[in-house]
Task: structure prediction
Amino acid sequence: MDHVPPPSNPHVDHIAQQPMGPIESLLRLERLRRLGPVHDKRVLDIGCGSGEVWCGCVADQRPLELIGVEPDESLRALAAATGAFARVGPVVLPADVRQADVVVAMGVLEHVDDPMVFLEPLIRATQIFVTVPNADSFHRWVGLELGLLSRLDELQAHDHAIGHQRYFGYDSFRAMLNQFCAASGHQVTAYGTLGFKVGSNSQMVQLGTAATVFSVANQLGLAGIDARHGSECYAKLTLA
Result:
């Protein structure tokens, strides 16, 4: 995946999809791997940011049609300029939800005022793929042990700076999705974590082994399907 430097826009830091460094780029690749093949599907990406996550997809992995939703005007322009999207707009259109084979919201629910209200328009989506930062991640447990965190779901200054309103734990995120599924008729067909950090992003970059750490964590079952200590939680929801 090509790395696109973040534009100088004061609102960019509040957009989860905007890449801010190599760790975030690795996480975006991990997200696409968990999403699975989409080359024959219509995909609606809510919170698409600059859209660069799709730029590294080879021809046989690109969506049949990709629609982006991004409230920030400058990021919409960047996403449109990638050429990956059929259309990029500022709001979710009901017709786009109905026509999409897959709706994705990667790194979005931690930013919104009310996650259940955010999910409500997706009640008839055939498949939904969501990711959120994981309060039960290994690196947050390390922070708790070191006294850097008072609790696992604590929001710190850097979280507020990038617009985080909450942390979900491995169990609390699943509970919220189960609540949505009970109302919508979806089933959680895959659930787990992705990525793996042993420290902060800057510390991981200094180690220079982030990709290796991610790979080993998956091999050892520290991250992946039904594993609870990766950097982010992910879930696939399928309409029954």
User: Anything to note?
Assistant: Confidence is low (pLDDT under 50) at residues 1-19. The chain has nine helices and eight strands. Strands lie at 42-46, 65-69, 87-89, 102-106, 127-133, 186-194, 224-225, 232-239. The first strand starts at residue 42 and ends at 46.
